[in-house]
Amino acid sequence: MWTPSAFINLGRxxxxxxxxxxxxxxxxxxxxxxxxxxxxxxxxHGNYQDLIAFEKCLWRATPxxxxxxFLFLGDYVDRGIYGLEVGKIRRTIFFESNI
Length: 99
Known about the structure:
Blueprint: H1 4-27, E1 38-41, H2 48-59, H3 62-65, E2 69-72, H4 83-97
Parallel strand pairs: 1-2
């Protein structure tokens, strides 16, 4: 059950997450030099099912089939009912494997 303190803690966590992301974005380059082969993924729009499908089909198989990189174009959370979950998974993937 959601209590007022749970809402406050959730709000604080989201604000802290946004602050962390802002610091990362400040130091990231605007243009990237990416080697081939590279899978380009984008416009997930909070679609959790698509993100999981990419994970099952590409991320698990690709290191064994070909040494490919992944480029996420953005538009992760602007629509769809799972925007927060998609953003959190994307952040976790970035920090764990530097995809």
